[in-house]
Structure to design on (225 residues):
């Protein structure tokens, strides 16, 4: 499969603990943000998104927090499981444009 | 539901040979379509996007081209591959309008030898 993220920052978490993955976005005009999960050899998979008029959004075991003041985005995964091991990307978009800017990603390793 | 298909999954081609990667989307009409390249340890680099049949926008001047002969078909091509074209190529689709995520295929791992 694809050897994505050979030199990516890595977050190692014990199984059952909570994970927090951070992302700093670059464009002040961005008003829509997405988190993706990418497993080895596969394409990125949509996890959760958030609009800029929100600070927090929750999904199943995942929460995204947005701090527009410091242009920071985080993904929290509750009760991390082995199946959560993957590379996680954030993406940003500005309404009315077709371009999405992706971060370089963070590798999450879940320790048994 | 919508699905995106991308093939082949892996490809090994000699330098100077042509390339054709295909991507099709099912379950939606008039999608925005994208080709990205992903290098190890780096983010996704946008190569091309298309908002309609025959409409292609190129983001990075290079040895590649894209075409959209049908509404839900997007093709990435090259007449002569270079070693530097090796990489992981991802096709994605998105809906027209704001606040819409991109959905990706499973990619093609291209190795140019």
């Amino acid at each position: 499969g694809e050897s994505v993220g050979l030199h990516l920052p890595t977050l190692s978490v014990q199984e059952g603990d909570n994970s927090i993955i951070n992302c700093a976005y670059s464009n002040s005009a961005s008003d829509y943000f997405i988190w993706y999960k990418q497993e080895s050899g596969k394409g990125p998979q949509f996890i959760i998104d958030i609009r800029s008029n929100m600070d927090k959004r929750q999904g199943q075991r995942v929460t995204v927090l947005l701090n527009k003041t410091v242009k920071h985005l985080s993904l929290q995964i509750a009760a991390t499981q082995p199946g959560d091991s993957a590379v996680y990307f954030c993406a940003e978009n500005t309404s009315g444009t077709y371009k999405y800017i992706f971060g370089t990603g963070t590798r999450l390793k879940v320790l048994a | 539901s919508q699905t995106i298909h991308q093939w082949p999954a892996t490809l090994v081609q000699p330098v100077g040979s042509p390339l054709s990667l295909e991507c099709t989307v099912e379950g939606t009409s008039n999608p925005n379509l994208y080709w990205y390249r992903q290098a190890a340890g780096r983010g996704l680099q946008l190569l091309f996007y298309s908002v309609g049949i025959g409409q292609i926008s190129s983001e990075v001047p290079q040895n590649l081209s894209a075409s959209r002969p049908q509404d839900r078909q997007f093709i990435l091509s090259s007449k002569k591959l270079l070693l530097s074209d090796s990489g992981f190529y991802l096709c994605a689709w998105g809906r027209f309008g704001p606040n819409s995520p991109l959905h990706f295929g499973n990619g093609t791992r291209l190795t140019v030898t």
In short: Chain B touches chain A at residues 6, 32, 38, 40-44, 46, 49, 51, 57, 59, 88, 90, 92, 94, 98-99, 101-107, 109 (CB under 8 Å).
